Amino acid sequence: MNTQNLMLIDPHIHMTSRTTDDYARMRQAGIVAIIEPAFWLGQPRTEPGSFKDYFSSLVGWERFRASQFGIKHYCTIGLNSKEANNEPLAEQVMELLPLFVCKEGVVGVGEIGYDDQTPIEDKYFRAQLELAKEVNLPVQVHTPHRDKKAGTIKSMEVCLEHGIAPDMVVIDHNNEETVKDVLDRGFWAAFTIYPNSKMGNERMVEIVKQYGSERIIVNSSADWGVSDPLSVPKTASLMLERGISLEDVRKVCYQNALDSFGKSGQMHESDWLQGSQVDQREKFSDNSVLRGGQTPVVGDVTTDGTLESNIVR
Amino acid sequence: MYQADIYATKTFLKELLERSTTTQGQEWLTKKMELIDAEGATPKDLYLAFSAAPRFVGREPLHLSQHEIEMANLIRPGFNPSRWNAAQTARTLLILSQPYQDGEAFRDTIETLFNTADMGELVALYAALPLLPHPELFRSRAAEGFRTNMGDVFEAVALDNPYPADYMHEDAWNNMVLKTLFVGKPVFRIYGIEKRSNAKLARILSDYAHERWAAGRPVSPELWRPVGPFIDEAILEDIKKLFSQPNELEQEAAALACAESSCTPARELLNAHPQLKSRVENGEISWSLIGDKALAAN
């Protein structure tokens, strides 16, 4: 795998469910910054306190843990569509959101949108769009797995109905069927390289060849499922191998993520250009990422880009 | 109910902030303060403004003059915002704009902010404790602050903050002083250290010094500051040991501790070191000088 030493951003990855080894390998592969959208945990939460602690970990421990490997961590905060269906709980989570959406490093309201496309999902999607508008933050939209094309179009229409500009909205998990609609309407089109279910990176190469690099963003959505935190570097490498220009790869694997979520005012290139030093002697609430006997790394992180295979089908 | 006149405090802080933020920053803050104070305000108005403050007013340090430090002390004895920044000041103004007649409701709002705060917010909240109405409702919160291992947060509650000296129960106070030494922070920045010294603390600190000595680790000369007035037979042995240490700061600390003791053997011990004694009497040795030097040596 060779990314020609490009700096890369993974703007959608759920690090809470990944290990520190992943962070080390991601940095090795050139990832300098990531965005962690608030997500569900594979099983529904039953108490607002679970959401509160989860949101706190996104702006607290997880930022610290990433910093220990030379990666800048940002997040988006929101009530996901699946859990929006528990209305009494959703009401309480909505009351928590104003406590988090303006915190340092929060670059958007997300990931929100539709799953089953129920009226309750619609209610909380709209309420969160209003919140995003109030605090002038980008929105990160999760498009549904089922009835995807209709759900994607509906998501965009609802955003417009609430007066949110298309360039403030990243529509996620696109595929060959949705990309044209999203780009034609002026929204950011993000693609998730996720084995077996969403998009493979060979398919991604073809999309960039066909649609170019304007407003197209690549991410991994790596989480607790079968997924790969190196999807962005592997896709970048494959695109270069298949003849896509360095500048186009840089846009879809770095610059577009920065330009879209940078509209939050919370994410600047200088954050990592000036701050990639790590000090693993540091602690957060008395916790370290190290375990007994490990020697802390202090100083600049170096990468040589040597990592294994780069194709996800 | 009050530690400081809230109106006077707000006026003072707003004036300080003027130099460290933009006109737009001030206007944003004024608007938010009015919103939070207005009839029909919702918790959301406070939450959003509280978190968002740095992006509108920035994080410039305040830069207080000596006169302003004295003014702060008049508003609230021991209040010293000389290390505050603009965002922190704005956040303090926002919480002081919250209605406070109902103490329990006020406490619940502030606790909600604490429970979801990030690091910058925690620093602002803890450092604001000496300005809040209903101070007696925040004792357990302050004790929670002493438990943190985030350096800046611990400093905000333990150092340059008069709330602990004025409101914390003795055990919590003692724990805070011990922890300040434990984490290597400067004891001379603990407000009210003399006033709140006590025999139990002296015993705890002596035990701690013994632990350090047994482990072959250095003992901060500042450790002896709250010990002086409580020198007894056991602690006298510690002081003798200090006088025999090669580090001059430790000898100076021994001399100061003896000078603050009313126990005869301690006075005699000081008399046996006439040079140090005269330096103490001339004011050439003080705890803040020792603290400064100890900090510089670290």
UniProtKB/TrEMBL annotation, chain A:
Homology family: Belongs to the metallo-dependent hydrolases superfamily.
Signal sequence, renumbered to the chain: none
GO molecular function: hydrolase activity, acting on ester bonds; metal ion binding
Source taxonomy: Bacteria, Pseudomonadati, Bacteroidota, Cytophagia, Cytophagales
Protein name as it appears in the record: Hydrolase TatD
Record keywords: Hydrolase, Metal-binding
Pfam families: TatD_DNase
TrEMBL record, chain B:
InterPro entries: EboA_dom (IPR047715)
Domain of life of the native organism: Bacteria
NCBIfam families: EboA_domain
Protein name: EboA domain-containing protein
Organism expressing this protein natively: Pontibacter actiniarum
